[in-house]
Amino acid sequence: MMKHAWDNYRRYAWGTNELKPVSRTGHSSTLFGSIQGATIVDALDSLYIMELYEDFDVATEWVEKSLDFNMNTEVSVFEVNIRFVGGLLSAYYLSGKEVFARKAIELGEKLLPAFKTPTGIPWALLNLKSGVGRNWPWASGGSSILAEYGTLHLEFMHLHFLSGNPLFKEKVMAIRKVLSRLDKPQGLYPNYLNPNSGQWGQHHVSVGGLGDSFYEYLLKAWIMSDKTDEEARTLYYDALQAIESSLVRRSAGGLTYIAEWKGGLLEHKMGHLACFAGGMIALGADGAPAALGADGAPRDATGRHMELAAEITRTCHESYARTTLKLGPEAFRFDGGVEAVATRQNEKYYILRPEVIETYLYLWRLTHDPKYRDWGWEAVMALEQHCRVEAGFSGVRDVYASTANHDDVQQSFYLAETLKYLYLLFSDDDHLPFDHWVFNTEAHPLPIIRRPHPPTPNPAP
């Protein structure tokens, strides 16, 4: 599958951001401005991990000669960080090739002006040449978005270690200071925060889009620090407790899901993006602080978290199983008599997303229950049957339709995340073991930082 996706990208879209596999041309997203090569950078570590070294060398040569950040263009700070910075860092740590570290640091430095706000909460959008930033026009009252400013920590800490530049660490630690002093409604973090006033925007809380990877990065910051970043640990488990109390619900049919919270009212909807949470909760289960039961006796927090993770994973699997194409919708609801089914046309699409498969990988590695590999194989079969076209893989517009209507985009994250997580699901546990590596939210593995410095890269044979 990786070869089919990569070879067709090379044939029809080389050097552009993504492939349009039906049209057989390049596709450029506005998220990256004029920066090109998103699929190349996103796929680097997948190619290396899958031992496709010749393809990796071709990609490396393109990065050396053609990857350019010196342009007058506006980019999404979040997307460029997780895909380009994360992809370059991971390629460096896996291969030892200095070009990747150099390019990652160069791009990281170009992103630093995004933090020039009264609070230090970065802008969503940044012009790489002028250093002028702004927020998405649709975001509540000019706010920055929780998942965007909260998903810089892992990459910026590695940029700090590789470059020695203290600014990378200072900028992301300053974000925590702002969040620590804010009142959190019911312990929850609203998705919108104004970078000028330092106040929350509208009270919308989601573990799916707009919120998701903020929580993931709290846990992973603690793990990546070799479990020395106690502040991150406390923030994560406190946030998870609030999510459990306020958002986790069980349907009449016995499915556990994570609802969204809008100004005190629950919307009984779960996004595909929120399905990463099963894996996150499982990954954090063994560090869960002991809680006392009503009788004052200590409860098994690890067991409870693993149970919650497994229940959420089952619900996300059901969202796939209840469709015609056996691929999950963008969002699914628990109201009006439906459970784990999309009821709105604009929520029925599937764009090759990885979150459900990501969670299968974590649950497989942490439990070795064979059903997670079985469920992963169901996804492989559905991808092959409905998303594979002659010149690559495409998303589909309606997972409940009897035949696939292709959207004609092979997302860069399909090669970075979906296929990597599938590959690792069927690999041995010592292939990128969790006690040495932490995956950024784009599935780029970053080494755990053991004191006094991160591990030395491991060059290709």
Explain what you see.
- With 461 residues, this protein is α+β, with helices and mostly antiparallel strands.
- Helix content is 44%, strand content 11%.
- The protein contains 15 helices and 20 strands.
- The strands form 9 sheets. A 3-stranded antiparallel β-sheet has the order 3-4-5. Strands 8-11-12 form a 3-stranded antiparallel β-sheet, with no helix packed on it. A two-stranded antiparallel sheet has the order 1-2.
- Helix 2 packs parallel to helix 15 and helix 13 runs parallel beside helix 15 (412-425).
- The longest helix is centred in the last third of the chain and has 21 residues, at 301-321.
- The radius of gyration is 21 Å and the shape is globular.
- It starts with a helix and ends in a 14-residue tail after the last strand.
Q: What amount of the residues lies in strands?
A: 5-15%
Largest sheet: 3 strands, antiparallel
Helix share, percent:
40-55%
Low-confidence stretches: none
Q: Give the C-alpha Rg.
A: 21 Å
Q: Give the overall average pLDDT.
A: 96
Cα shape: globular
- How many DSSP helices? 15
- The beta-strand count equals 20
**Separation of the first and last Cα atoms:** 24 Å
Structural class: alpha+beta
